[in-house]
Amino acid sequence: MRATFESFAAPRALRAVLLTFAWRIALGLALTLALTLLGTIAHGATITIVNLDGPGEGFNDPTPAAPVGYNPGTTIGAQRLFVFQYAAARWGAILPSPIEILVDANFDPLDCDGSSAVLGSAGPNTLHSDFAGAAHPMTWYHQALANRLAGEDLDPTTSDIGATFNSDLGKPECFPAPWYYGVDGNEGTAVELLPVVFHELGHGLGFSTSTIAGVEEVFPHIYDYFLLDDTQGMHWPDMTEPQRAASAQNCSKLVWDGLAVSLEGPKRLGPKPSIAAAARSSSRSSARRTRAPSEWWSRTASRDARRWAWEAPIQASRSPRFGSPQTMAPA
């Protein structure tokens, strides 16, 4: 994920501040209630952050820091780890899986300059196919999802997800805005770490494909069965490689058409209410429009993430013979 820098003016009216605060409290309460109800319906997954950083760096950075935004950490490293564990707990609360999900995570310098930066990335450590419980034969699945469907750890010697985040954010030679380690959404002009971790963990859990159309294809991936090109009128598994390459560049015409999303889409894509405040704050960049935990999480993950567990099995329509179980580590 890459962010671009823009300076933001602070709101100049108390009314706007109070209105924002009230909405955050309301959405936070809704999130708590939703997670409580979900916990009574299905057993959540255990997602464990595995600290790969060495002494004095990343999660082990000893630089003193005051607790901020409900993050109790007293060092930079402790605050980073708290954010990761917070995000992992929220994902785990709504994803039913009997298999522990291990996330190898670390902070390292990543590509950045004075106006942009790679914030972080995450993905599966291995891919699996033709295991007991797979909805489609000869189809790749992210490790965590494959384990959930198989009911066992298909590769117990390897963590499920790998994640690396930028340790240089906020340094003079890198992106000028630093990380914000609170979990209350009050990041100001800083870059809030929590929604970026939410987002990237989603990729590692299964919200991504191994099919890099037109570049390198590890094909087909279970995600591809729900990628529909409106122009060509086909899903990715039904296309040739050149067609997939064209589809990958078909902006606004490549859609997800899973059953659950199709049912919920009209409720989320319809007209949205607007709220007028006495004063205007400056516009926020697209990278900053992802908020957490209240706005981003309650509107997106509390329902959408559950499709990780059952979307593919519901839509399985092919039943040729399965081959031998296969495992592969992405490049």
Brief write-up:
32% of the residues lie in helices and 16% in strands. With 331 residues, it is an alpha+beta fold.
Could you describe the 3D structure shown?
- There is one protein chain.
- This protein is α+β, with helices and mostly antiparallel strands and 331 residues long.
- The chain has helices spanning 14-41, 76-94, 143-150, 193-205, 241-248, 259-268, 294-304, 307-315; strands at 2-4, 47-51, 101-108, 116-118, 120-124, 127-129, 141-142, 161-166, 179-180, 191-192, 211-212, 216-217, 227-229, 234-235, 254-256, 326-328.
- Helix 1 (14-41) packs parallel to helix 7 and helix 2 (76-94) crosses helix 4.
- It starts with a strand and ends with a strand.
List the helices and strands and how they pair.
Blueprint: E1 2-4, H1 14-41, E2 47-51, H2 76-94, E3 101-108, E4 116-118, E5 120-124, E6 127-129, E7 141-142, H3 143-150, E8 161-166, E9 179-180, E10 191-192, H4 193-205, E11 211-212, E12 216-217, E13 227-229, E14 234-235, H5 241-248, E15 254-256, H6 259-268, H7 294-304, H8 307-315, E16 326-328
Parallel strand pairs: 2-3, 3-8, 9-10
Antiparallel strand pairs: 1-4, 5-8, 6-7, 6-16, 11-12, 13-14, 13-15
